[in-house]
Amino acid sequence: MPGALARGTRPAPYLRALVRLLRPHQWIKNAFVLVGLVFGHGWTDASLIGASLAVFAAFCLASSAVYVGNDIMDRDADRAHPGKRNRPIANGAVGVPAAWLFCGALAASALLAAGLISDAALAIVACYLVLNAAYSAGLKHVAILDVVLIAAGFMLRILAGTSGIGIEPSKWLLFVGLMLTLFLGFAKRRAELTALEGRAGDAADDAPGVAQRPVLERYSTPMLDRMVATTAVGAAAGYGLYTVAPDTVLLHGTNGLILTLPFVVYGLFRYLFLVHRRGGGADPAWELLHDPHLIAATLAWFAATCIVLAGR
Questions:
Q1: Which of 6, 36, 68, 148 is most solvent-facing, going by the fewest CB within 10 Å?
Q2: Domain 1-169: assigned CATH number
Q3: Over the stretch 162-180, which tens digit does the pLDDT of each residue have?
Q4: In sequence order, which residues have a C-beta less than 8 Å from that of residue 310 and are 6 or more positions away?
Q5: pTM for the complete prediction?
């Protein structure tokens, strides 16, 4: 980092490059940490709110550490990719030694933040970092397992926001979270494969795509379509069953959560529409932050959930 400045790099552009490495727009994925706070009725407990936000911050640091590590490992492939070649490490804006130092600092900060909450939170964040290290080291090239590991990262977020702060996790919500994240993972692979097939006629363009995700060669569009459909049904049906389960009604004191199901179903269908008709789905965080239909469905679901639970 000092070496880059010594070579004449201006501080402001360098800091902007470091911020880009963090990928702050991806932090929206860490909202899974807050699920326990909402469905565990923890929003009235100031200590639980503080602990949940601290775990959220720890996962933001941890996920950014993972992104920096991935960019270091993939820098050669990124340079050959038309879109990713402008990433700070690939284009040389941040040197590899400085990037490793930044990655280590982020990971250490994440573990420290989690450790201040509880031993369980520390263990979960540590598992998340180890899981992603294994993913980057080679497991991302194993078909099916690559998406399962991504989904496992989201499950750890849910566990950190429940078990990590002393809230009993709902088995139904864990199931729904698994199905939803598998859905997003397989939809992402489907979008990437479609983009790659669209360049199949141009060998020069095809090579970067294969270099970026060699695992795509092991998938097919019909296979991914079946996996996406199966997990979409699992997520919608699982959430519907959760809302009417006796334990849920007893916990929340209302059977009104079923009224929030249409927003979940619409969100899933809208995402499928983006994947199949708009060429989207390759970046779930970007879609959620930019597609007005997904934004509206998410906000409506959250508002309806809060109204139902608060009015019990």
A1: 6
A2: 1.10.357.140
A3: 999 999 888 888 999 999 9
A4: none
A5: 0.84
